[in-house]
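Subgroup meeting minutes
Present: P.N., E.W., G.H.
Scribe: E.W.

1. P.N. recapped why we're keeping a running log of single-chain structure predictions: easier to compare across weeks, and new members can see raw inputs and outputs side by side.
2. G.H. added today's entry (382 aa).
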Amino acid sequence: MKNRMAIFFIVVFTVYILVNLYIFLKGYRVFSAYGNLRITYTVTFILLASTFIAGKFLERIHTSVFSDILNIAGGFWLAFMLYGFLLLFFSDIIYMVLRFSGAVTADQAFTFRKISWFTTLLVSSLVIFAGFLNALHPVVREYNINIDKKAGEIKTFRIAAVSDIHLGSIIRKRSIRILSDKLGETKPDVIFLLGDIVDGEIGPVMRGDLLKYFTCPRCRDGMYAITGNHEFIGGANITIPYIEKNGIRVLKDEVIVLDGQIQVIGRLDRDGLRFGGRSRAPLSELINKTDTSKPVIVLDHQPVSIDEAVNAGADLQLSGHTHNGQMWPLNYLTSKIYKVSYGYRKIGNTNIIVSSGFGIWGPRVRLGSRPEILVVNLNFKG
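Output recorded in log:
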């Protein structure tokens, strides 16, 4: 397990360094023509490229407003790495085509590089700013699902579900208050938090006691949560008690029964074994604790065990984790990785909904996806 983690971090840091080196050299070629500006460029670039790593390091040893600022800056730098790399790589392709066709001569190469570099800066900045504005405006996605079972006297049951809040250095008090207000407006019977409530390190959350601002006074059946991979990354022994201290029950491979004999299975995240040494129970074992003639809802942070839910006869599975890629074109990647990476799909008799999440990881930027709150109206037709 330790070897896998070591390999993972080596790969991530290698990619991080190589992408930054590629972007740096593209700019250095331009600024090398401007004398002392190349020194200013080099120092500025190194400082910006270091913000993300420095922020995460400081957050781990001592959380503060300064580490928050570094994390915010580092997040935007990650977004620039993505879009800067894509635009510069695309300009390289154009340059090669133009050189081979004779449309650009060797004497014109510097002018082309200069135009492509500053165009990349401008376009990336505009795209990132648009994605930032988009990330500030969550939407409510509503689904109506018919279930051919009885739930006592209950004919309709209204669920509000939120995944991937990622409370921490970037998602803070203002965001959690907006979330609480929107949840209150939906008037749900119950609230489910689908994992990754915190962003990782619990320090920035506890420093401002951010979860105390999370409320839902109109929830008849209360608030329940499951773990995501980030709850274990930050230390589940601290994170889970903090969440529960704020009135949210965390389901850890547990089955609860709500009004109308509506049964809810809350699964431990599968990364609990990798980060916390806690393996989760098979869904078949948990489903044996339920009455499948009554409605069964499965909460599972990562949508990787959909076939388990279908084979077990669950009526509904709610998941998150994917962020729907968060930033285009990464949504194409997540759609290849997961059987259902976003939205609604029915497989057999099981209804699957995967949320794009409320918060973000890394950059507070969303392109090609929206931050969202799920509202699921279950209509019992049995």
